[in-house]
Amino acid sequence: MSEIVFAKPDPYDFLETDALLSEEETLLRDTVRDYVEKEINPHVADWWDEGVIPHAELAKAFGDLGMLGMHLEGYGCAGTSATAYGLACMELEAGDSGIRSFVSVQGSLVMFPIWKFGSEEQKQTWLPRMASGEIIGCFGLTEADSGSDPASMRTSAKRDGSDWLINGSKMWITNGSIADVAIVWARTDDGIRGFIVPSDTKGFAAPEIKKKASLRASVTSELILDDVRVPDEFLLPAVSSMRGPLSCLNEARFGIAFGAVGAARSCYESALAYAGEREQFNQPIGSFQLTQRKLVEMMVSVQRGTLVALHLGRRKDNGELTPEQVSFGKFDNVRNALEVARTARSILGANGITLEYPVFRHMANLETVFTYEGTNEIHTLVMGQAITGLNAFT
User: Fold this and answer.
1) What b-and-e string marks burial along 114-147, b requiring 16 or more CB atoms within 10 Å of the CB?
2) Has 373 been annotated as catalytic?
3) Angle at CA 256, nearest 5°, toward 251 and 262?
4) CB-based contact 111:159 (threshold 8 Å)
5) Annotated catalytic residue, options 25, 93, 251, 373
6) DSSP assignment string, 136-155
7) Can you give the pLDDT of all 394 residues of the chain as single tens digits?
8) What are the residue ranges of helices labelled H in the chain?
């Protein structure tokens, strides 16, 4: 009887999840990964340290790669599958959460509502230029006093002849200060409506929020709208309720479920390499039982998160994904990624707090990812209501 020889598991793909990808998905994933390794990773620690981002250059590069609004059909968009979009988010966030945020805000929070709720003229006017990276957008929903309860927003829009006058403010807006256009959600007599607001409109201001300790390779801003006048043709015509902004957030959360795995993977791989090189007591620290347990826990979290993300992607591509399942992905993958980052930092010891390694940067970024696009607590209650049928929000 011949002996069965088992292949050694790949420490970077222990469950061989790459086998679940199609040839096209693998090619796209590898293209984005190659770009991140060559063009993002050598510079992102400096960008993060200095609190800057070369937004115009990145927008053009991402446009050339077809990553902006890549999961949308037509109007210059690539029209990829949802899973392919998720894989791109995974690779971008392996570089930095701020880089993934830049892309997901553009595609899922700005281009998507125009594509989904806009008029044909609005789509033709804005989407091709946004897909190419010529125009950068931001998404104005959150306010200083209405984060988890966006329906309590105070920003209002009132008709004034054939125009609308918008007044209010928005807070924690990614890309705000560099945006050419904003999607602003406001309370009207007809419900919650979305408006396309060019940033050069009189009364519109977007001061940048400084002194951040997280997502530093990303622009975060306040939006101030003081009697901002836009014509009626800048109103998104096809939605007049919270369904509009919440559907956009669901698109972005889907990308986060993938992206968080990328950040976790980067931390795990850094810790694994370090544990094989760093010696204490005349042996690599990777030979210590406690270190091996940490490495195994991180590997399992990364592999489990990958499987969850891919499953959600397949369901979305089949038109079967529910908002509650997106909450599952955002909730579990982000909290596990944050734990992976913290564990990796402990393996790297004092070296873990330097920007020579990506671990602390990812850890700090994930503290924001844990909160934005629906806090961990909110997603807990979304799933709690789903399994009990009881509303615990009020």
Assistant:
1) bbbbbeeebbebbbbbbbbbebbbbbbbbbeebb
2) yes
3) 145
4) no
5) 373
6) -EEEE--BTTBSS-GGG---
7) 566 666 789 999 999 999 999 999 999 999 999 999 999 999 999 999 999 999 999 999 999 999 999 999 999 999 999 999 999 999 999 999 999 999 999 999 999 999 999 999 999 999 999 999 999 999 999 999 888 888 899 999 999 999 999 999 999 999 999 999 999 999 999 999 999 999 999 999 999 999 999 999 999 999 999 999 999 999 999 999 999 999 999 999 999 999 999 999 999 999 999 999 998 999 999 999 999 999 999 999 999 999 999 999 999 999 999 999 999 999 999 999 999 999 999 999 999 999 999 999 999 999 999 999 889 999 999 999 999 999 998 7
8) 23-35, 44-50, 55-65, 82-95, 97-104, 112-117, 120-131, 243-277, 289-317, 323-348, 359-369, 376-388
Do the Cβ atoms of 380 and 372 come closer than 8 Å?
no
Rounded distance between C-alpha atoms, residue 125 and residue 115, angstroms:
11
216, 51 contact by CB (below 8 A) = yes
3-class state of residue 174 by DSSP = strand
- Please state at what angle helix 23-35 crosses helix 82-95, rounded to 10 degrees: 20
Contact 33, 12 (CB under 8 A): no
Report whether 260 contacts 334 (CB < 8 A): yes
**How many Å apart are CA 50 and CA 124, to the nearest integer?**
37
104 class by beta-carbon count within 10 Å (0-12 exposed, 13-18 middle, 19+ buried) = buried
- Provide the residue count of the chain: 394
CA–CA dist 27, 13 (Å, integer): 17
Mind listing the domains of the chain with CATH numbers?
Answer: 17-131 (1.10.540.10), 137-234 (2.40.110.10), 243-388 (1.20.140.10)
